[in-house]
């Protein structure tokens, strides 16, 4: 992004300059908003799936897409070794201002040398992929920075319900892209981000893709509205398929 609208909004809230929330524009729903206060929530205010994921974290932890750092802050307060990672420099500045001792303003796709025991990707962690075709490369990238006995804790939602009619049937055009591929745009204080792709993936598709890329995929928990939490671990070393 040329402008860090997301980071600007987080910084405003952190520094006491809150005046409005982030507006979201989506290819599949009406305009919505992200309440900034929710991004600064405590453990007790987090959804059940997030609480389960945080309680499963162990070892050297990387919080991918940390945002305002609420997950990292909780883990740090639990004496866990956690690093907050976000592509937004504003978000990482907020993490630092909130007292998170280890943070990186980097893109998860570029990490190479580090190794982690837990990779934490919450608030629809598969969204980073953008398109279904990127899910395999994304999982392969995560696997490359995972210790041998490490784990990936990732959540998503199966948005098939959005294509359900009054009879319970699902209407999806087989000629079109995977139904979980969504285009988003964020707006804040009169500015908008460029449109970006975001991926919601059903568990079976995630599991198949994980297995193909040498990862075992286990369903840890299901939420109240088609959302789920998965745990991925290294199954075997993938061969070069080029």
Descriptive notes:
There is one protein chain. The protein is α/β, with parallel strands linked by helices and 242 residues long. The chain has one domain (5-160, 171-234): 3-Layer(aba) Sandwich (Rossmann fold), CATH 3.40.50. The chain contains six helices and twelve strands. The protein has helices at residues 5-14, 48-56, 70-77, 89-97, 135-144, 203-212, and strands at residues 22-26, 32-34, 60-64, 81-85, 103-104, 116-121, 146-157, 181-188, 191-192, 196-199, 215-222, 227-234. The strands form two sheets. Strands 5-4-3-6-7-12-11 form a seven-stranded mixed beta sheet, sandwiched between helices. The two termini are 32 Å apart.
CATH 2nd-level architecture: 3-Layer(aba) Sandwich
- Series of secondary-structure elements, N-terminal to C-terminal: HEEHEHEHEEHEEEEHEE
User: How confident is the prediction overall: mean pLDDT?
Assistant: 93
Beta fraction of the residues? 25-35%
Backbone shape: globular
Q: Which terms summarize this structure?
A:
alpha/beta, Rossmann fold, 23% helix, 5-stranded antiparallel β-sheet, globular, single chain, 7-stranded mixed β-sheet, 242 residues
Summarize this structure briefly:
It is built from six helices and twelve strands. The protein has 242 residues and is α/β, with parallel strands linked by helices. The strands form two sheets. Strands 5-4-3-6-7-12-11 form a seven-stranded mixed beta sheet, with helices on both faces.
